[in-house]
Amino acid sequence: MGKIDPPGTHRKSGKKRARSGSRRGFQIGGKTSSSSLELVGTQSSVRGAQLCHLRESQEEAVRETVEFIALYCTEADSLCPGAPGCGPGFALLGQQVEWIAGRQPHPRAAVDTPEHNHDSNYTMTKQVPLFGGAITIDLPSDIIDVRYIILTSTKNKNKNKRKGISRNHTFRQVPDTQEVFITRNEVGEESGNKNGTRVEMQDLSMIIEVLERVDVKDLPMDQLPSADPDALLPQTIIKYHFDSLAHDNSSDLATIKCIELPQDRTQFGAPVTIEPTSGTGRTPEPVSCYGLQSISKFNASKAESHEVHIWLALWRLNGVGNNGKGTDLVLTFNLPHLPASHPPHFQRSLEHTHLLFQHSAQSLRIVDWTLFA
């Protein structure tokens, strides 16, 4: 893949992306009514690892907590018992765990009992079915599907512990056009620190979203390439999605650092209507980018905004779905920036996340094209 460095800074586009679904995307925003608590999530970013929190009601300052129900997790299912930093595999029932080399092509070789390897060049992943199995992708083995997160108030916490999970618990709502996952938030002692300083691993979120295909006619005039539109169309389209994401997240500033283009760019040509069937065709190569967005937490001022590292991959499905208009399939990884007090640790996290994103994007396969019918 070739790399292209676009202009460094891109303001939010001011126009939201067209969606295939009728419900609003999983994102930050919206006002809380006086009579209820509204879920606060993110369409494609985690605001300071606050993905699993409720906004406080404007009239009743009820402190909310998050309880995770591990529907598909057991302590006995630990992938590497006794190994530091390794916990139970939050694997879906029937899923097998795959070990893959982070810099190597996906071998598609699943094993029942993998040998543990803590080498930094290796990433532990599993194949995850999306949208009922119509799409598959490799994601970290410790991911949590946010649909299985329970949101409950602390004022009923003791009561809930005595009586167990009640019908009053609220599950996080995710639109039918999205799949949203987060990694576990791990806190541990920094090795070699006599004071036992605790180092927090902030949550990484992963969102897969099915959107209506962005037409060139929908692009703002200032984003249209002035020369050789066909050659520049891939980076123009992914920039539009990145900027639209910044708009949805109320980002003050969005900067794309680099863009990686696929060798085969036929997906960016003129759409030809294709009737989706279970075997319509092969999954195209994605165009991807990495950048930063500056986002304010909830109702905080712009001065309190913080950076979120964002990786975005785009698959253009020309003529597939939306009455022949086509579909844009978007994958985003979002990693909140850690404080400057842990630069070496966070640099390793960035490198690891980048390799993980590349592998996940390369592993995505469309199994049943009728998903887009």
List the helices and strands and how they pair.
Blueprint: E1 2-4, E2 9-10, E3 64-68, E4 97-101, E5 122-130, E6 135-140, E7 143-145, E8 149-153, H1 157-163, E9 170-171, E10 178-183, E11 186-189, E12 198-201, E13 205-212, H2 229-248, E14 253-261, E15 287-295, E16 306-317, E17 327-336, H3 343-363, E18 365-366
Antiparallel strand pairs: 1-14, 2-14, 3-8, 4-5, 5-6, 6-18, 7-10, 8-9, 10-13, 11-12, 13-17, 14-15, 15-16, 16-17
Region (Disordered): 1-39
Family: Belongs to the MOG1 family.
Pfam family, one: Mog1
Give an overview of the whole structure.
The protein is of the alpha+beta class. It has a single domain (2-372), classed as Mog1/PsbP, alpha/beta/alpha sandwich (Protein Transport Mog1p, Chain A). Helix content is 13%, strand content 28%. The chain has three helices and 18 strands. The protein has helices spanning 157-163, 229-248, 343-363; strands spanning 2-4, 9-10, 64-68, 97-101, 122-130, 135-140, 143-145, 149-153, 170-171, 178-183, 186-189, 198-201, 205-212, 253-261, 287-295, 306-317, 327-336, 365-366. The strands form four sheets. Strands 1, 2, 7, 10, 13, 14, 15, 16 and 17 form a nine-stranded antiparallel β-sheet that branches. It has a four-stranded antiparallel β-sheet with strand order 4-5-6-18. β11 (186-189) and β12 form a beta hairpin. The radius of gyration is 21 Å and the shape is globular. 33% of the residues are buried. Residues 1-122, 162-167 and 187-201 have low confidence and may be disordered.
